[in-house]
From TrEMBL:
<feature type="region of interest" description="Disordered">
    <location>
        <begin position="110"/>
        <end position="131"/>
    </location>
</feature>
<protein>
    <recommendedName>
        <fullName>Cupredoxin</fullName>
    </recommendedName>
</protein>
<dbReference type="InterPro" id="IPR008972">
    <property type="entry name" value="Cupredoxin"/>
</dbReference>
<dbReference type="InterPro" id="IPR052953">
    <property type="entry name" value="Ser-rich/MCO-related"/>
</dbReference>
Length: 131
């Protein structure tokens, strides 16, 4: 249960396209402090994939370089967030609020609200680099 890549560096004007693969996942905005709780306007809703030929996508428009935090809200049969299925934009790996710290907090958190390889992929366009 992962987003790949799990952290992306982006600048204002970039877009990040998520391609949902296998089963039923979401991209849901949260905060660093509460990684498995919806907080923010971004929510792809659940993207059910019934076969490998039609993979749904969701585009995230980056408006600034502030770190942003996301998770998969699926809880059936287990919380994907608590399993570490989280994603960040512009998380500083040298900061106390790194992606690794965010993922550790998600794994330690209680059950995510919301609705099971189980991965979603992100690609981006614009001038940003992926990490």
């Amino acid at each position: 249960l992962t987003f790949n890549p799990a952290n992306v560096s982006a600048v204002a004007g970039d877009t990040i396209t998520f391609t949902f693969q296998s089963k039923n996942h979401s991209l849901t905005q949260s905060t660093f402090a509460a990684p498995c709780t919806k907080n923010g306007p971004v929510d792809s809703n659940f993207q059910f994939v019934s076969d490998a030929t039609q993979l749904p996508t969701f585009v995230l428009n980056v408006t600034d370089t502030t770190p942003q935090w996301f998770f998969c809200a699926q809880t059936n049969p287990v919380s994907h967030c608590n399993m570490g299925m989280v994603f960040s934009v512009n998380a500083d790996p040298t900061s106390a609020k790194s992606f690794d710290a965010f993922q550790a907090a998600a794994k330690a958190a209680g059950s995510a609200p919301g609705g099971a390889s189980q991965s979603g992929g992100a690609s981006q366009s614009g001038g940003a680099s992926q990490s």
